[in-house]
Amino acid sequence: MMRSQCLLGIRAFLAFAAKLWSFLLYLLRRQARTVIQYQTVRYDILPLSRVSRERLNQVKRKILVLDLDETLIHSHHDGVLRPTVRPGTPPDFILKVVIDKHPVRFFVHKRPHVDFFLEVVSQWYELVVFTASMEIYGSAVADKLDNNRSILRRRYYRQHCTLELGSYIKDLSVVHNDLSSIVILDNSPGAYRSHPDNAIPIKSWFSDPGDTALLNLLPMLDALRFTVDIRSVLSRNLHQHRLW
């Protein structure tokens, strides 16, 4: 009798210890993601020289079109565990939306350095969100990324795309009729196949906490805003080169 009680006690203790260990690992992973996401990043924005200021005054302010999923964020919803997301990895935020009268929770992970990236490029470009996702989801994600800064006010969704052979194509002329001043950042080449000379490719992101793709793009985006026609640079087969 006493032996059975001891065994039950040991099992209960081991079960409690396992749960406690899982909880501690969850906290450690969450803290690690926070440190990586908000670690100090140096990209010095130096005052413009007189020549640079004059140059910017001679060209149009450019528009940077941003995709969401696998470009700025990655998400999965209830009942779907993506093998690319390590089990137990905490999301940066959770969205609750209603789709076809059914409540759905999306667990959203932000790409490393996305907040810093948006803060910097919003000083250089007019930012536009263009996603092939449904508006009810894309709008909620954009609100979270904007974080009351009013830098992601212009938004386009699935209904603004063209469906061709099962793929959603983004027509940049919907955003602006002057394509010389529009840059699109998207992980899916199919999305910008109508405008490859306006595109900057980027690797799809799912969960790598050490990803620096957004930071790597800052020098290029800084330089592009001085051009008369961004296609004079991006048309040089950039979409066929390595992804950032």
Outline of the structure:
One of its GO terms (molecular function) is protein serine/threonine phosphatase activity. The protein has 6 helices and 10 strands; from the N terminus they run ααββββαβαβββββαα.
Q: For the CA atoms, what is the radius of gyration?
A: 22 Å
**CATH hierarchy class name of the largest domain:** Alpha Beta
Q: Globular, elongated, flat, extended or rod-shaped: what is the shape?
A: elongated
Biggest sheet: strand arrangement: 6-5-1-9-10
User: How much helical structure, as a percent, in the residues?
Assistant: 25-40%
Helical segment count: 6
Tally the structural domains: 2
Query: For the terminal residues, how far apart are their CA atoms?
Result: 66 Å
CATH superfamily of the largest domain: HAD superfamily/HAD-like
CATH architecture of the largest domain: 3-Layer(aba) Sandwich
At the third CATH level, what is the topology name of the largest domain? Rossmann fold
Major beta sheet, specifics? 5 strands, parallel
Helix-strand pattern, N to C? HHEEEEHEHEEEEEHH
What does this structure look like?
Belongs to the Dullard family. It is a single-pass membrane protein. This is protein-serine/threonine phosphatase. This protein is elongated. The chain folds into 2 domains: 1-39; 47-240, Rossmann fold, CATH 3.40.50.1000. 34% of the residues lie in helices and 19% in strands. The mean pLDDT is 86. α3 packs parallel to α5 (213-224). It is an alpha/beta fold and 244 residues long. The strands form 3 sheets. Strands 6-5-1-9-10 form a 5-stranded parallel sheet, covered by helices on one side.
